[in-house]
Amino acid sequence: MSIWHLHRTSDPGRAGEVDTAASDHLFALDDLSAPGADSLRLGTLRLRRRIGMSLPRYWYHVGEVVHSAPTLDLFRREKVLLLGNDFTAASELADIRVEAAGCPPGRRMEILEALIRAGLLLLDAVPGASNDSSEDDRRVIVELPGVRRINGASPFWEGLGGFFHDADPDDGEREYGPAWRSHVAALLPRHPVVVSLLRSSAREAVGEVGESALALRDALLAQGFGPSRHVGIIDGGPVYCSERRFRQAARNCTLVAATAGRQAETAQSWLLRPDHGDEVWCLPGQDQGGSIALAAAVFERCGLAAGGTAAVLPWNRCH
Amino acid sequence: MTETPRKPSTRFLLRPCLAEDLSVMENFAEASAHGLTTLPCDRAALADRIERSLQSFSTEDVSGEEIYLFVVEDCATGEVVGTSGIAARAGFSDRFYSYRNEFVVHRSQALGASNRIHTLHLCHDLTGFTLLTSFYVDPRYEDSLAAQLLSRARLLFIAAHADRFSDRIAAESPGLADASGRCPFWDAVGRRFFGMNYPAVERLSGGRSKAFIAELMPPSPVYVPLLPEEAQWAIGQLHPVAELPFSILIDEGFDAETYVDIFDGGPTVQERVGMLKTVGRSRTLRVETSAASASLANSANGLYIVAVPALAGFRASILSAAASDSAIRLGAEAAHQLGTTRGDLVQVAAFDGVGGGSR
Questions:
Q1: Do B220 and A69 count as a contact with CB atoms less than 8 A apart?
Q2: A272 and B CB contact within 8 Å
Q3: Which residue does chain B place closest to A172, by CA atoms?
Q4: Number of Cβ atoms within 10 Å of the Cβ of B24
Q5: What are phi and psi of A262, to 5 degrees?
Q6: Which carries the bigger pLDDT value, residue B112 or residue B201?
Q7: Burial class (CB in 10 A: 0-12, 13-18, 19+), A60
Q8: What whole-number distance in Å separates Cα of residue A198 and Cα of residue B188?
Q9: Are A113 and A142 a contacting pair, CB within 8 Å?
Q10: How would you label B183-221 residue by residue, b for 16+ Cβ within 10 Å and e otherwise?
Q11: CB contact A77 to B (< 8 Å)
Q12: For B66-71, what is the mean pLDDT?
């Protein structure tokens, strides 16, 4: 059975101003059981907690207005975009990527789901985290990439944001990093924008997932995320959201040594977040009620200690 | 456009529209180009409007719902050659919708960038304003003083009966549209919400007020840069058929920059009554008919809009006369046509013929 490890990794790509109130870390998912190597990089993701608390974050809310006049035989539903900060204080999974070299054929979805679920476990099981945070604060979002042309241009930006700031978003993000989106939002429309007034290519891009992100969308749906009524300000890609109350709660277990000989027969896979450290393990173990029994080899490979405690979730997706 | 006043004339007389003017008014309604006049083409509706106007001229009990219709006669032939009107309060008990031009400036300190964005805000600012309506002049008389008299004399009527009107006046002018009624502004904005052209919406609305249609439009501001270029260009643009009355209003001092019509994007002008040229120049003078009047002995002739300020008996003409600080000398024929005699008080405003034609 495989042992996967999600852990903090060095973050070479940070540029520009950062949201100082948010914790923002890059994590890597490695396969420690890959043959012929000490570990194999499967993918990466970025975790941000309490976003937008110092540097505001912006999204368009996609609302709806109805124009109705029975005597004119008129009934039209119109989408309306309203710029706002609706996910402030939520957490975010971002930059979710599968490493091509570490992606065995047919396991892309498995890796994506492991990244997402492990990320959620890290966010949900923060030692010492306040229990009185609001349900809104416990939301986790993923901004999915929207539609792009072959040359990388965004029809949504060209049809909306570009009229308010004539700049290439990719250039802006290269210069300012993720903060560029906050900076440029100051130039974007503050009043509701009726979607039907946009050019057709921009209208059609509202809430559409870019082709490169379709697998990620499926993985998010499989892990309980759903489309919110928000889209990104650059390419109009949808924002998917997971609410804490709909997520399976992890249970706290003690890690114990498995009885030799029986472990292999009854072991299942678990996502396990030790009480110490910012990491999640995906490993085989035996459910013993209040404890999870791990093989000695697993203890050794993972550097875990018997008697320690962890937040655990069953993980049936892989292995 | 500036023209030097030409040959003085008393050829035209403005008076309230009467029931016997129905047929000619019907002709005007049918002949008027797209959107130029607010006269209904339906004879019964037109008769009703004339009746309402006559009631307005005769009643002392005003509510703001009054309308006043005037016609101008060619005195040489007795022919009625044009009409104009006033609605005492735009919208009256309903709301009067306009788009207000606004410019918002966004700035991103971090990017060192700012933008200036043209927006159209749906508003009721002009509700309750007095509205100039129903302008139409026979094309043969477009370059004559008839057009000037039709447009400007009603301002003297408003000034003379200020308690019946708002102290602010507005006037709508038709925007760009082709002969079939296709209108670039409507196609880019209203059509998105109605799925039909504007004439069709008007037909379907069954003659209800424009407010009924306006309430189906999106209430949020329209960001102009998001509209197609053709529609952007049409904002505040005038339909060519309205150039004459519009030029007179601009010459009067109306502001044409702030409001546009929510349907075709045509300019809606507005101004305080007291700021308008004709009103600002108007004085109340005593009529003299004697050539030997001492007070006018040293006065040279000039061109004046002269109005008898009675309500139902309101009459006005543009004529050449000598005027002093207290009196104006009218010829016997002119005095007779205006229905005034020596010693009467009349409103007089110097007319310089600027704006539109003034043959």
A1: no
A2: no
A3: B111
A4: 17
A5: -95, -25
A6: B112
A7: buried
A8: 10
A9: no
A10: bbbbbbbbbbbbebbbeebeebbeeebbebbbebbbebb
A11: no
A12: 96
- H helix or E strand, kind and range, residue A68: strand A59-69
Q: Which residues of A touch B201 (CB under 8 A)?
A: 72
DSSP state string for A215-278: HHHHHHHHTT-EEEEEE-TTT-PEEEEE-GGGSPPPEEEEEEEPPTTTHHHH-EEEEEEESSSS
Cβ–Cβ of A179/B220 closer than 8 Å?
no
Query: What pLDDT does residue B1 have?
Result: 45
Q: Is B144 exposed, middle or buried (0-12, 13-18, 19+ CB in 10 A)?
A: buried
Nearest to A194 among B109, B117, B220 (CB): B220
Which residues touch A75 (CB under 8 Å, ≥6 apart)?
A66, A67, A68, A69
Domains with residue ranges and CATH for chain B? 12-279 (3.40.630.30)
Residue in B53, B133, B65, B21 with CA at minimum distance from that of residue B314: B53
Q: Residues A11-28, buried b or exposed e (16+ Cβ, 10 A)?
A: eeeeeeeebeebebebbb
First to last CA, chain B: 13
- 3-state SS, residue A181: helix
Residue B2: the pLDDT is 45
Q: Does the structure show a pLDDT above 60 at B177? A: yes
- In chain A, residues with a C-beta closer than 8 Å to the C-beta of B110 are 17, 176, 179, 182-183, 186
Q: Is the pLDDT of residue B5 over 50?
A: no
d(CA B206, CA A73): 13
Q: Which residue of B has its CA nearest to A77?
A: B193
Task: Say which range, A141-155, B122-136, B190-204, has the weakest mean pLDDT.
Answer: B190-204
Assess whether pLDDT exceeds 90 at residue B102: yes
Question: A58, A156, A163: best mutation site toward chain B, by most B Cβ within 10 Å?
Answer: A163
Contacts A160 to B, Cβ<8 Å: 226
Q: Domains of chain A: which residue ranges?
A: 4-62+84-246, 251-314
For residue range B203-252, list pLDDT tens digits in order: 665 555 667 777 778 888 999 999 999 999 999 999 988 999 999 999 99
Answer whether A69 sits within 8 Å of B216, measured CB to CB: yes
Report which secondary-structure segment, H or E, holds B51: helix B43-58
Interchain CB contact of A198 with B (< 8 Å)? yes
Nearest to A187 among B115, B212, B221 (CB): B115
Q: Which chain B residues are Cβ-neighbours of A74 within 8 angstroms?
A: 194-195, 216
Distance from the Cα of B319 to chain A's closest Cα (Å) equals 51
How many CB pairs below 8 A link A and B? 94
Contacts of B117 in chain A (CB under 8 A): 164, 189
- Would you list which residues of chain B are within 8 Å, Cβ to Cβ, of chain A? 104, 106-111, 113-115, 117, 119, 188-189, 192-195, 201, 204-206, 212, 216-218, 220-223, 225-227
Which stretches in chain A have pLDDT values below 50?
127-128, 319
Cite the active site residues of B.
Answer: 239
- One of 2.40.40.20, 2.60.120.1440, 3.30.420.270, 3.40.50.620 is the CATH number of A251-314, namely 2.40.40.20
pLDDT at position B196, please? Answer: 78
Note the pLDDT of residue B296. Answer: 67
Query: How big is chain A, counted in residues?
Result: 319
